[in-house]
Amino acid sequence: CSEVTVIRPLFMVDKGVELKTVTVHAKSCRGAMTRHIIQNRLSKPEAMHDFELNDFKYNARLGDENHPHFVLYTQ
Fold first, then answer.
1. Residue 56: DSSP 8-state
2. Taking 70 as the threshold, does the pLDDT of residue 46 lie above it?
3. Could you tell me the pTM of the whole model?
4. What's the CA gap between 37 and 66, in Å, rounded?
């Protein structure tokens, strides 16, 4: 039996004072990222860091390897 690591990307909107999850954005981004992973046959978690959708971009300073943060900066 092999171990499976689950990567859970988080899609956050920078509201200036805090980062918030906006459910409608997060849901569409998760679906688009899933499609990106499958279509590009990504096999390493760090390969998803180049994913961008509607100005959501990977921020290496936030999260960790199992919870990469993709942030939309509105300011």
1. B
2. yes
3. 0.89
4. 15
